[in-house]
């Protein structure tokens, strides 16, 4: 059981890296550089591929932490 959880944890961590690298980059214009990006940060809704990749990354992160907690529990026995 321990080895299965460890293998799943490694696979999920690789998928997190891939999902993070696939997310579209934000354009840094002069307004964001001067204001720190706080002026218009919450006013645009993410759509399409960007929203999908954010959801995939969130699900993978939750799965990663659940597997890590299960692995920590199993290692104490």
Can you offer a commentary on this structure?
- This protein is an all-alpha fold.
- Helix content is 71%, strand content 0%.
- It has three helices and no strands.
- The longest helix is centred in the last third of the chain and has 28 residues.
- It is elongated.
- The mean pLDDT is 83.
- It is a multi-pass membrane protein.
- One of its GO terms (molecular function) is protein-transporting ATPase activity.
- One of its GO terms (cellular component) is plasma membrane.
Cα(first) to Cα(last) distance is 12 Å
Query: What pattern of helices and strands is seen along the backbone?
Result: HHH
Radius of gyration over C-alpha positions, nearest whole angstrom: 17 Å
Largest sheet: none
Strand content: under 5%
Oligomer: single chain
Q: Quick check: average pLDDT?
A: 83
Indicate the percent of residues in helices.
over 70%
Helix-and-strand structural type: mainly alpha
Poorly predicted regions: none
Number of strands: 0
Outline type: elongated
> Helix count?
3
